[in-house]
Amino acid sequence: MALAVLAGGAPSALGAEVSLAESHSSATLLTAADSVAPGDAVRLGFRIAPRDHWHSYWLNPGDSGQTTILDWGLPEGVTVSAPDYPVPGKLPVGPLMNYGYDGEATILMTLAVPKEFAGSEVKIGLDAEWLVCEIECVPQMGRFDITLPVGASTVQGVDAATIRTAESKLPEPAWWDSRVALEGDTATILTVMMSEEEAAEVTDAYFYPASEGVVDYAAPQTFKAGAEGLTLTLQRSAGAPRPETGRGILTLSLVDGTSLAMMLDADLAAAPAPETASAPAVIADAMPLWQAALFALLGGLVLNLMPCVFPILSLKAFSLAKCAGKADAHHRIEGLAYTAGILTTFLGIAGVLLALRAGGAAIGWGFQLQEPIFVALMAMLMLVLGLSLAGLVNISTGLEGAGQGLAASGGAKGAYFTGVLATLVATPCTAPFMGPAVGFALTQSAAIGLITFLMLGLGMALPFLVLCFSPAAMKRLPKPGPWMNVFKEALAFPMFATALWLVYVFSQQTGIPATFGLLLAMLVLAFALWIWRTGSRGFVRGLALATGAVSLALVVWTSGARVEPKVAEGDSTVAYSAAALDGLLADGGPVFVYFTADWCITCKVNERVALDRDDTQALIAERGIKVVKGDWTNRNAEIAAVLAAHGRAGVPLYLFYPAGVRNPIVLPEILTPGGLQDVLAGRQTS
């Protein structure tokens, strides 16, 4: 019995098969029986017939495409096995390699009815989604319902022959043992343990892996026969995820002109690659703790020179100048409080970071800036600090949690919160020595990781700590006077600039409508502060607090939006994906890959100073270097895996692949025009 219906309908049939005509293909649910007996099994088939010159996809679609999704609805106790796919073919598309079927293909399953099944019929429901492509791709979907009567015996149906034909196109079970071994990020070795004589008869071999991460799909596969059997050497993509299984289909061409297709269930050998995308392994074994601690200390020291912390450090400098002439003990207390603020904040951020990574999150240094709500709250805090320093808002009672009651004030409390703020705004920056130290910290136990982060914080606090404990240095500070009010008001502008930068970062993460919401929230917050300043009566303060609550509600509401980063139209830069990079490397030309984020000031400085220069761009064009950009403004597990594979916990990361080379040159975190151009021009090879 066959029933064909138009797309959008809800086909139903009693027995045999049901078909659906979609826009660019038709699909049919087949059964090998017209009725089924309890305790028996029945073969089912899902046949996809795309238009001429269109194709559908295998279990692993390769570089692009999508496997078919089958969602079954069955009576209690009745089960359907995992799908068996026919042997796929290679579907090259430009630099990509996909796996699938030109023309009709049937996926097979086995329906099992338990012996104790007491119903009079088995109702089979199927919601299916499949993708067909020519040049463009068109998703297809449909609902299929078949009812099989339950009888004393299973009665073969008219589609049994069709299903037998489909079974002949399945790969045979392998009669050889096999093993898949990952050779780091660059290669996979598949060993099929056949006899040397059998291996010698193979004239061609190709492996279709069922799991992502085994091979670079577009790369050629080579094989050789030996005493251990047949060995295939397969290229593997840099940063590829660890595969879940070594299963796959091996196709063989033999000297007598015949061919074989076998389903291998290869053992997946222990690999040197990291267990998860968030587990960098390169640094962990290569660096002793003392070296990591030293790198962290030096990195923290240099962090004071990064542009992120300038606005906050100027506050601390102002605070110290204001205290000139006070007792040495006062300075030492401020220095210790400032250090405590930095260390506790580093511990807090590191603790959250380590806990989230332990839970499997693919995050790294600066992860909090990947959350729009954190960016928005920081922007509002900078606005409050700026208004306070400019003298437009004076919060002296009740809300010491903001404004000059904290970082802008003097004393131990002000010093402590200056340290807190300095650490929070420092996270978008990185510095020489920091990358390896943070990468090391994230591969160790929690205790060692926290010690490393503490050394990073100590390095950052050290200059002010030394200054506060040096009476001779303190005596060199200018004496307090009327100039300080002017200086204080001038410090408001770095705060406003920081707020504007954070709004820009927010806009890149959430889009224009949400950014308008944040600006509105900042306006409402400023209005709330103005109301607060107008009086101390309960009604006035209540109105101010209510208005401030509205502002925070606006922040929460607008921070839920997300937009994906895009490469600007007309820009020849390629957006990073493992598949895109593999395609460019397969072409054999030189490739420069850089990983950045809109909140990473170090990245932006590097791009402005070294990468976006006319002479650098001219060199890139002259040498035909393809440029790939990985944008980590929002979380991206694929990029996190690449960072981890190179022992980094955050951006920036710069990789250069010379022509024909798959092991990249890793450039330093801080770029100089000469250093970058030397690498791109081949004058520096490591």
Automatic annotation (TrEMBL):
Residues 567-685 form the Thioredoxin domain. One of its GO terms (cellular component) is plasma membrane. Keywords: Cell membrane, Cytochrome c-type biogenesis, Membrane, Transmembrane, Transmembrane helix. It comes from the Bacteria. It holds the Pfam family Thioredoxin_7. GO terms for biological process: cell redox homeostasis; cytochrome complex assembly. It is a multi-pass membrane protein. InterPro entries: Cyt_c_assmbl_TM_dom, DsbD_gamma, DsbDN, Thioredoxin-like_sf, Thioredoxin_domain. The keyword Thylakoid does not apply. PROSITE patterns: THIOREDOXIN_2 (PS51352). It is found in: Cell membrane. The chain crosses the membrane at residues 289-315, 336-367, 373-393, 414-434, 446-469, 490-506, 512-532, 539-557. GO terms for molecular function: protein-disulfide reductase activity. This is Protein-disulfide reductase DsbD family protein.
